[in-house]
Amino acid sequence: MSKLLTTRRSVLRTGAAAGAGLAMPTIFTASSVAAFTNDPTGSSVTLGFNVPQSGPYADEGADELRAYELAVEHLNGGGDGGMMNTFSSKVLDGTGILGKKVEYVTGDTQTKSDAARASARSMIEKDGAVMITGGSSSGVAIAVQGLCQEAGVIFMAGLTHSNDTTGKDKKANGFRHFFNGYMSAAALAPVLAARYGTDRTAYHLTADYTWGWTQEESIAAATEALGWNTVEKVRTPLASTDFSSYIAPVLNSGADVLVLNHYGGNMVNSLTNAVQFGLREKVVNGKNFEIVVPLYSRLMARGAGANVKGIFGSTNWHWSLTDEGSQAFVRSFGTKYGFPPSQAAHTVYCQTLLYADAVQRAGSFNPCAVAEALEGYDFDGLGNGPTHYRAGDHQCFKDVLVVKGKENPENEFDLLEIVEITPRAQVEYAVDHPMFAGGDLGSCNGGA
Amino acid sequence: MLGLNQRDTKFLLIVIALTLFTPILLQPFPADSGLAQFNAGYPDLMQRFAIFGIFAIGFNILFGLTGYLSFGHAAFLGVGSYSTVWMFKLLNYNVLPGLVLAIIVSGLFALLIGYVSLRRSGIYFSILTLAFAQMSFNLAYSVLTPITNGETGLQVYNDDPQILMGENGITTTHFFGLKMNASHIMDVGPWQFTFNFGYYFCAVIAILAFYLSLRIFRSPFGMMLRAVKSNQQRMNYTGLSSRPYTLAAFVISGMYAGLAGGLLASMDPLAGAERMQWTASGEVVLMTILGGAGTMMGPILGAGFIKYFENIFSKINDQVLHGWFAFLPDGLENALVWLLHPFVGKGWHLTLGILFMLVVVFLPGGLVELGQRIRNMFRKKPKADNDGSHKPQQTPHVAE
Amino acid sequence: MDVILLQILNGLDKGSAYALIALGLTLIFGTLGVVNFAHGALFMIGAFCSVTLQRILSWSFETIDPDKTDFLGNPATVKTPYVVEWFGESTGLAIIDWSVPLAILFSIPIMIAFGFIMERGLIKHFYKRPHADQILVTFGLAIVLQEVIKAFYGANPIPTPAPSAFTGSFDFGLLLGFAENTIIYPYWRMVYFAFSLVVIGGVFSFLQFTTFGMVVRAGMADRETVGLLGIDIDKRFTFMFGLAAAVAGIAGVMYAPINSPNYHMGMDFLVLSFVVVVVGGMGSLPGAVLAGFMLGILESFASMNIIKSFIPGIDQIIIYLVAILILLTRPRGLMGRKGVMEE
């Protein structure tokens, strides 16, 4: 274990001679010892992988951990190098980061913002992690991002889809590769309009917490802009397991599309319930009734089984993409673990490479230098086409996949088929877009 | 001393000494050794030990003395956290106003809930408190989002008023300028000890809280509460109304929980709604019973035990396991890792569950009983503990 | 009118799950006096009996199909279930399709055995211990059980569809003279409701009309006297524990198609089922059933848009609100005996 230097700003270090507990203290102001929190001084650097290992998202967390391990292996020169070979930046050479071997610590977020912050703090304070990454829900991502800002380490967000992560809760030390609710809506709405017509009436069921609200706001705005009506927006309690009483009134409302702004277990249950009610066989207003799930997770969609067939949604990445980067990643992940990676695995793998690459280019682990290297950075070869890390809000801009539940899956992983790859230009928005307004990036904090 | 008899004074001094040397006691392994994984002497966890210690001490005043099992105490913890963070948002990062407000608000909240819930006893009381707490949690997570910031948790933003925060005000929680995250790191040979101001701040408050609860336990008021537990009916027949006493105990323990919540937010300025969930209430029940309900030290031990598991065991992954057993031949190493794998890292809940069951089955008096048994084993002569008198009494079978 | 009918239907369906869980819970409490926090876990294990049977029935052998490729571009393996091989395509697939109803038969012996082991191995030692200890140990057991399930089946929900004969929904509205599509209800949920009525009726008639049941009821009323009559009441109570476990188990089996089972579904139901039991009255079987259906219906009404627009967030708290109101006005619950658990 390397030297542990803890919390920011006022860290005072005392060197005491071995055995002499009360030796002459040599007190330095922090800045003269280290320029930033957890400056790796040894031959290795520690990254903190903070993922849900218990609770409903544990399987997603496990997949993220697999991808992290793979990324660390590749960074240290092991394996087949995965996407490092297809990445447009070539500064990573398989000798770790800046010549330091990459090590990692793991923690359990429990999908609770409290536990996630405790786990992240222990990584920073105890294990000397210089970067924290992970998460499988927006509340946790935002909470940990705030912590990293205060502690002066970089946070590379994992799966977080809420507009707020790079909107009203954006932080200078936080970076998001994953897409968001606005992008989902902007990509999905035109496809829906093309398939189902512009004369549709939508009924929204929304998970009653911040992610659900931003998702609902985004998709309602995007579909209404194309001529749809929104008849009702109903908030469902997070703890719901049975959505029957929310779904039963849908047919009576005059709506002919049901939008499920749910994720994870909520999504599996609400979709299963909706299909049980036979909504998809009904004809309303002379049109076939349709169901839409704006954010798909293949891993969770498996829980809904055959119910996903034919249902539209969006996703950040899918293993069936045929570009070089995606294929390299699927090959190296699939060979190691025996099944294809999920979108969560992909985004955290990318984030790890992007961080390593930024450190390498900046020539320093200093969060401010790393942030500068990431800001406004253009890259390619990580599976989503040409991608841009915007300086104004630390959000990645890239193509978005519109997908549909596959009618005839060939194997248990073959659940979604890509309907359209929406070009990046179509999902871009201004930094001060109303749905993202109110936040303040602040300035980067290197700790110490 | 301080209104305590000699024995309690000694007890208190031991507790003070243990608390002050925690950063050393919890860091028994050299920083470079493989066992450093088990070190717990870093600020966040030490703070949590102290804070959840306060929470459990407070809970014990209610449960240990009166026997009323509240399943909604986390609500007060959450309310305390929210009050403190709101003070940060409105005034500045000084923790004092926040902590004071946390105690007041949680006290009022406890008064309200206690007034209603204490009309019933037994499991009905438990369910009532549980219902109130779950309502608070569900509302905090959804419709009360303007006040609580819902899923994300309440935090301080750059554009918050913070009216007392001058131009160059401190941007981290502090106590009149002493920053909570200020740490002093001491290297002694291969060992490394971290002395963190935030921890000592919590520790001093925890000692005060402990002292106060010791006084309550030994006071006539405490005696009255014990009477409620042993036979409320008889107490009523003697013409005493038990309600004011139980309500006072409920409010005091609610204020302890609020204080703990406020301290949590002071160490890390974020208040998440999950703090109020029933599982969080269940956790403090587990802490108290695991450590030994009704004893002075038990709840603190229980709190430390659970928090240690949550934070240390969950971080042991296969890589770490392989690191430990690297000296063994490959086959044996893999076998051991395979064997231990389900119990560490993502399996920490499983280990905790098994340990709960073992403790409850074999040590009805909790960890304190374990300590007593070990002590008696060495002394060979059984010695009645000063806390033995208020261990949970056996309840008769309901069908008897 | 149609909206109200629809929500009553919904409530009955929700309520049947609550009632079944609460029935077992209160059976254990009424006979053995044990507060069983692992009861939700028993429900969960029941649901996973469905999953397990489905897996067993679709046990497959693999053949390599050179025409197809898997996600890595290697030749794909094709799985053929043994039942298809043995019984032919149509019979084999039908057996797999019907795995959930078949799982009832599969789960009853498992759950009874499980209940026996649990009672004899663990609960037995806790009769004389405080309720707090019982809560703690059964809560610990619940954690262990769900973590074991998680270790074997993962954390994600596992799809367990109902037989395809029951897909789709029935139009009640047409039957009652409303317009088309106003009151529709899925077939499987109606099956679940009917099933719960059968189980509840079965348990009641078992207690009411058999000698065994009579002795058990006598034991619930006055355990000591029954013991003095020379009846080994403990043995019967142990059996009742097994029965309660089986009721929770089959409730879980049949629930699997409604919501895909996951390892923490037991905890989701636990708090709720306790509220149901207390509202119904501790130890009262009819009370538990009544409270289950009542809370189910109220919950459904609270989720109506009109009511939500009137009182925001009411659907989040309705159950607890009702529990508080009932406990304050009628402390022993709807049908409970006075004085139970009030010490």
UniProtKB/TrEMBL annotation, chain A:
Pfam families: Peripla_BP_6. Keywords: Amino-acid transport, Signal, Transport. It comes from the Bacteria. GO terms for biological process: amino acid transport. The keyword Signal applies. PROSITE patterns: TAT. Residues 45-406 form the Leucine-binding protein domain. Residues 1-35 form the signal peptide. Coiled coil: none annotated. Belongs to the leucine-binding protein family. This is Substrate-binding protein. It comes from Halocynthiibacter styelae. The lineage of its organism: Bacteria, Pseudomonadati, Pseudomonadota, Alphaproteobacteria, Rhodobacterales.
Automatic annotation (TrEMBL), chain B:
Pfam families: BPD_transp_2. Residues 381-400 are annotated as: Disordered. GO terms for molecular function: branched-chain amino acid transmembrane transporter activity. GO terms for cellular component: plasma membrane. The keyword Membrane applies. Its main location: membrane. Residues 391-400 have a biased composition (Polar residues). The chain crosses the membrane at residues 12-29, 49-71, 91-116, 123-144, 197-217, 244-264, 284-309, 347-371. Keywords: Cell membrane, Membrane, Transmembrane, Transmembrane helix. It is a multi-pass membrane protein. It is found in: Cell membrane. InterPro entries: ABC_transp_permease, LivM-like. This is Branched-chain amino acid ABC transporter permease.
TrEMBL record, chain C:
The keyword NADP does not apply. CDD domains: TM_PBP1_LivH_like. One of its GO terms (cellular component) is plasma membrane. InterPro entries: ABC_transp_permease, BCAA_transport_permease. GO terms for molecular function: transmembrane transporter activity. The chain crosses the membrane at residues 15-35, 42-61, 102-123, 191-216, 236-257, 269-298, 310-328. GO terms for biological process: amino acid transport. It is found in: Cell membrane. Keywords: Amino-acid transport, Cell membrane, Membrane, Transmembrane, Transmembrane helix, Transport. The keyword Membrane applies. Belongs to the binding-protein-dependent transport system permease family. LivHM subfamily. This is Branched-chain amino acid ABC transporter permease. It comes from Halocynthiibacter styelae. The lineage of its organism: Bacteria, Pseudomonadati, Pseudomonadota, Alphaproteobacteria, Rhodobacterales.
